[in-house]
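User: I'm writing a tutorial on reading structure tokens. Could you give me a worked example: one chain, its sequence, then its tokens, then a sentence or two explaining what the tokens reveal?
Assistant: Sure. Here is the example chain.
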Amino acid sequence: MNGTNDGEGTPPTVSRRDRGIAAYARIFALPEQDVPAAFAELVGPEFAEEALQAAGGAGWWHPALTARDRSIAIITALACQGVADKRLRTHVRLSMRHGLDQDALTALTALLAGYIGYPRASITMETIKDECAHSDRAVP
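And here are its predicted structure tokens:
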């Protein structure tokens, strides 16, 4: 793959599953060899395998999207669903590694508020504010 997506492209000869493992290793800051077992423990082996296959697809690896683009899209999707647990926290931290700062995340959330409603946007903003306040801590 070319480096336009995030500078961490995986060669196209790598299997879809292996690309998924690489994606989740970056998201959760885990060694690649630990990802399958960690996922299986979290959600069970069948669901884990589906997630790994999905993360190895074009959504995560297509060069037309940068890592920053993906972070914005995922935070938006989670905000729309009202997700504010560790899933959102993980992606907020990942977005900071991809160059989004508190100003950008605040602007994104303010934009979303008019479309998804203030209650969901405010939940998202609380999480972003908390994660940005603790951004000096080690990223898990």
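What the tokens reveal: The chain has a mean pLDDT of 88. The radius of gyration is 15 Å.
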